[in-house]
Amino acid sequence: MLLLIRLERQETDIVITVSVPHGSGEYRTEDIDLSALNSGPALDIGQAIRQNILETFEVRDWSLFVNEEGQSR
Fold this sequence. Notes:
Strand order of the largest sheet: 1-2
Structural class: alpha+beta
Helix content: 10-25%
Distance between the termini: 29 Å
Order of helices and strands: EEH
Radius of gyration: 18 Å
């Protein structure tokens, strides 16, 4: 999963990836129906992680974002 957080004032984006590994035989394919929004247990966990990131993401050091002259935005 990819998350894109746009920081308009800083004129930049933050891209976050959430990897959801899974192996053959970990779930039954008949339990997954994307048209019914049933993505299976592995993706359900990934979506919960994604939601937690979206709810708790914060920039703690805005000085990380500088313009070409080296000034904070």
